[in-house]
Q: What sequence folds into this?
């Protein structure tokens, strides 16, 4: 079945009243993952925009059509270790244990429990929607925020000009955990995204599966709300967010860009990058090129 038919036929597990901002990448990611995971799923959404948008519900009503819980910002993968193991003991391997978590919950606060669950190869699908900051609490920087970005804790000024450090490359770190499946995905490349969710769900029956998904945020980043997919597409085209996976056959780059878009072009029109200096742009370009060369080496393409 083509990915379009999969999405056309699968029931939306998120209720229509979810209240993410218009054009939010995170909501599209949440809806897509749950459409594919389907009814037989236990969902965990730690505090963040997707929990705040109503997936875990308000006034004792749930915002999704499947069982859902809101763990702490830092213990999602531990809590789901218990949930997943309990279902296995009951002989219910058919139940999907799925986490949809922000980058703050993944790369910073919850990294310890995530790393532990990945290393133990727990039977969980963990999806990180990476909007590069703590958006739900007012756009603070996280360890995945791009260097030079304006956030509420890395302002543009004379002392610092946006975030000082480069972003932590979480998917590559996770891929070194001996887990079952690890991949990056983007809402700009839906076929690839859908296939990776399907692969991740299948892998989560054998062990830990991790998906790191690029999640543009119009409100925090400062661009028009109809530009979500365009921004995500430029991130892939510039190798800012390369699409790759690691499975039992090793690393594979899923989309090779012949003539990558310069980072200078990617950052245009996004307000959080509006004061980047030439030096900062060069530094980001260098980071992107180095990271991509490392991926090529791992995929045996140098
Ligand atoms: C230990 C802890 N610190 C702070 C908070 C407050 N808090 C709730 S949501 C949130 C932002 C989470 O960011 P992220 O995981 O990236 O999700 P996003 O809001 O970007 O969707 C924060 C800091 C919390 N719930 N727990
Ligand atoms: S602040 Fe950003 S991530 Fe949060 S709901 Fe709005 S667009 Fe989505
Ligand atoms: Mg975030």
A:
């Amino acid at each position: 079945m083509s990915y379009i038919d999969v999405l056309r036929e699968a029931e939306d597990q998120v209720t229509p009243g979810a209240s993410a901002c218009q054009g939010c990448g995170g909501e599209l990611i949440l809806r897509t993952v749950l459409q594919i995971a389907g009814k037989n799923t236990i969902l965990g959404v730690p505090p963040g925009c997707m929990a705040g948008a109503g997936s875990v519900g308000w006034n004792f009503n749930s915002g999704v059509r499947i069982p859902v819980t809101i763990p702490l910002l830092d213990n999602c993968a531990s809590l789901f270790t218990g949930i997943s193991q309990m279902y296995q003991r009951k002989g219910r391997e058919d139940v999907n244990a799925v986490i949809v978590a922000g980058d703050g919950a993944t790369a910073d606060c919850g990294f310890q429990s995530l790393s532990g669950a990945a290393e133990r190869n727990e039977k969980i699908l963990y999806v990180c929607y990476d909007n590069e900051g703590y958006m739900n609490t007012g756009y603070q920087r996280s360890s995945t925020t791009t260097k030079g970005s304006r956030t509420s804790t890395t302002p543009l000024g004379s002392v610092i000009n946006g975030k000082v450090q480069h972003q932590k490359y979480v998917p590559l770190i996770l891929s070194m955990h001996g887990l079952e499946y690890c991949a990056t995905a983007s809402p700009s490349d839906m076929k690839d995204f859908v296939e990776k969710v399907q692969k991740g769900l299948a892998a989560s029956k054998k062990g830990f599966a991790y998906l790191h998904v690029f999640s543009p945020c119009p409100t925090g980043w400062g661009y028009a709300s109809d530009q979500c997919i365009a921004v995500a597409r430029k991130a892939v085209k510039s190798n800012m967010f390369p699409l790759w996976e690691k499975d039992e056959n090793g690393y594979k780059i899923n989309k090779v860009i012949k003539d990558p878009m310069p980072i200078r072009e990617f950052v245009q029109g996004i307000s959080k990058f509006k004061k980047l200096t030439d030096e900062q742009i060069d530094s980001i370009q260098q980071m992107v090129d180095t990271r991509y060369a490392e991926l090529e080496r791992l995929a045996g393409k140098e």
